[in-house]
Amino acid sequence: MAIKSPLYKIQERLGAKFTEFAGFEMPLQYSSIKEEHLTVRRSVGLFDVSHMSNVWITGKDAMKLLSLTTVADVPKIGENQSQYTILLRENGTVIDDTIFMNLGDKYMIIPNAGMSIIVTKWLNEKAKEFKLDAKVVDVSRDFVILAVQGPHSREVLQKLTKIDMNNIKFFGCQYGEIAGVECIISHTGYTGELGFELQITPTKKAEIVFNKILEAGKEFGIKPIGLGARDTLRLEKCFILAGNEFEGGRTPLEATLSWTIHWDHEFIGKQAILKQKEKGDFDRLTCLECVDKGIPRHGCEVQKDGKKIGAVTSGTLSPCLNIGIAMGYVRYDSREPGSFLDIIVRDKPIKTKVVKPPFVPKDWASKN
Amino acid sequence: MEIPGLIIMGDEVRNNLKYTGTHEWLKLSGENAKIGITDHAQSELTDIVFVELPQVGKEVKKGEEICVVESVKSVSEIYAPVSGKIVNVNKKLEDTPEIINKNPYDDGWLVEIKVKDKSEINSLLDPESYKKII
Prior knowledge:
The complex is a heterodimer. Chain A has helices at 8-13, 33-42, 62-69, 116-129, 153-158, 206-216, 227-236, 242-245, 270-279, 364-367, and strands spanning 3-4, 17-21, 24-29, 45-48, 55-58, 81-88, 94-102, 107-110, 135-138, 144-149, 173-178, 181-186, 195-200, 223-225, 284-290, 301-304, 307-317, 324-330, 340-345, 348-355.
């Protein structure tokens, strides 16, 4: 049976329609995906993302363990800073992408929904294998995660805390009280807008924070936002959804995540991706914008001159642009920005253009 | 506390229409029948953003897929409530598919079929029976 968020009851009262995602029953939408999407782009929205995981890494070798198992330059990330990174298998494929937070005496990582057991086991195994003094504990069910996202998110949270929210820099993180409840506050998100995420424990205190944020955001027209808009918001910014874009085993080079790799350190999977890098002839994640009407979906074939050269991993209608957009893996020699490819939707080709990410630029809301 | 957001109710069932278990409605006038999706269906889908209409002139059998209605997140096939020939499609939906959300029983109709066998209509649901399944 699907796990319900501790906030399920209030979400039900707010009119949420629920969906199952990676073993969790979470709000898909409250009013309408389009409306929720545009509310986040133009103003502010509140998400419950408790389906995401929480894992503590403690011990004197915690940093070494993270450094060994991720592509990031972990020692560079000081106290109260966080970093987006990926964990690789020995063969170079991605296990999961995650954010890790340096909270001084320990690290917290936020693996994807349904990934906490796999990631925790992997990290504990590696700690043992490399004789590191590090303990990894899955505490996912002890935390509610809220995300406040949108141009007014900082003002909303500022009303509920004594901390100067301006002091929390992009990818900064720290302990602090929101609405009288102790949280880990981070300047992170998955929407491409100004935004913050709150890790709240014990979970029974989350309802107060959830309600207070909705109240404080009223003057800005805040809305609770479901996973439907979360997906369209991230896709407009070409952010990866692990379950879609890593499906079947993809390397960070294929997923165009080279920018996350700190090559100047030893990490699991490094040799494999170095080899792939030398060869160069691998499919790469590509952004495609529809020229014709139609909506590409997960699994649709990508063609050039009638021949298959790739497949869509994520596709939707962009609520901001009102056209179909898609990401998918495409042959390395057929993805020049500006060139045209077909996506096959219900046996019919839809003309699309290869574009550079993101689909929706940062200043979209101020111009539209 | 006031609840932000809008809750779309979608329970209107019109008395002058026939229905299917897959949430299509049918309205017969003369030889032809207009077909669309119900208020319940549009409210379940929300945000209809794309409609793929069939070719005029196409022969369809009862239960066959006649068009596709897409919301942001989902793709739904619409089935012919009766057999016949497509004689008209609602071209307005190509540019403004959202009229199905606003007005599923009038402006938001999908196709018009020349009904082959009117007795097929008798097997469709009456409003009372449809109300029971939504």
